[in-house]
Amino acid sequence: EYLLSYPQTVIMFLQNGAGELTYLALRGNSQTSGTTGDELLLGIVSPELSTIFDEITKQQQTELNKIFSGRTSEYHPPSNEFTECCGRAWQLLPEKLRNWLDTSETLIFCPDPSGNFDKIPIELFNTGNGWFGIDHKVTRHVSIRALMKMLQAGRPSKPLGSRAAIIRAEDPEGFNPLP
After folding, report:
1. pLDDT score recorded for residue 46
2. Residue 22: half-sphere exposure toward Cβ, Cα within 13 Å
3. Residue 94 in contact with residue 45, Cβ under 8 Å?
4. What is the phi/psi pair of residue 118, to 5°?
5. Residue by residue, what is the 3-state secondary structure of 5-22?
6. Average pLDDT of the segment spanning 72-87
7. Which residues neighbour 28 within 8 Å (Cβ) at sequence distance 6 or greater?
8. By the number of CB atoms within 10 A of the CB, which of 17, 70, 85, 161 ranks highest?
9. Using CA atoms, how far apart are residues 121 and 124, in angstroms rounded to an integer?
10. Is the distance from CB of 50 to CB of 14 less than 8 angstroms?
11. Mean pLDDT of 147-174
12. Measured on CA atoms in the order 148, 151, 152, 158, is the torsion positive or negative?
C-alpha cells in the first residue's frame, strides 16, 4: 500500500545479476489505468540494453566535452547519433514498462550502483515525443532499504538536512534542452 499515496508514480529498480539485467517496477494508484491498488512488473531486459547504456554515457560525455571546450554552444541541439542512441534505449525497454513510464508523472529510479547503472541518464531517453526528463519528474534513490522506509505509511517525519540541489530552473528564452 506504499504507493497509494503517490498516484502517477513509478518506482523502478534496475539490478544486474548472473549476467542479466533485471527490472522491478512498482506503480501505485493510477488514474489513467483505472487501477485501485499497487501494481508490479518484473522482468529481464534485452542484453542489448546494457550495451546501449554504455554507448549513451560515452556519447553524453562527448556532447558535454564539445560544450565545455567551446566547440559548440550549450543551446545547440545534440547530435543525431546521440538522439538515436537515446531513442534505442527507450525502445529496448519492455513495452508495458514503457507505457507505465510514459503515463507516469514521476519516476523514482533505483539503479544498482554496483553495475554502474547509477550513471545511466534515464532522463535522456528519447521517447519519440522528446526527452523523458523534460516531461517527467525523475528522482534517483540508490538505497532500496532507505526508500522503503521513506515510503512507509505512518512513518514519523524527520527534519530534512541542510543541503539541497536545484535540478531544473526556468529555461532561458530560445533554449533548446540539451541532454
Report:
1. 85
2. 7
3. yes
4. -70, -10
5. HCCCEEEEEEEEECCEEE
6. 86
7. 2, 3, 4, 5, 6, 7, 8, 9, 37, 38, 39
8. 85
9. 6
10. no
11. 63
12. positive
The position carrying cell 501505485 is 28
Between residues 165 and 40, which one has the greater pLDDT? 40
pTM of the shown model: 0.73
Secondary structure class of 153 (helix, strand, coil): coil
121: cell is 541518464
Lookup: cell for 51: 550495451
Q: Rounded to whole angstroms, how far apart are CA atoms 26 and 9?
A: 8
| Of 107, 112, 141, 113, the residue nearest 127 (C-alpha) | 107
CA distance 114 to 93: 21
Beta bridge pairs of residue 11: 26, 108
CB-side exposure of 99: number of CA atoms within 13 Å? 7
Residue 177's nearest CA partner among 168, 144, 16, 127 is: 168
- How many Å apart are CA 56 and CA 84, to the nearest integer? 10
The lowest-confidence range among 50-64, 119-133, 141-155 is 141-155
SS3 content of the chain, % helix, strand, coil (to 5): 40, 20, 40
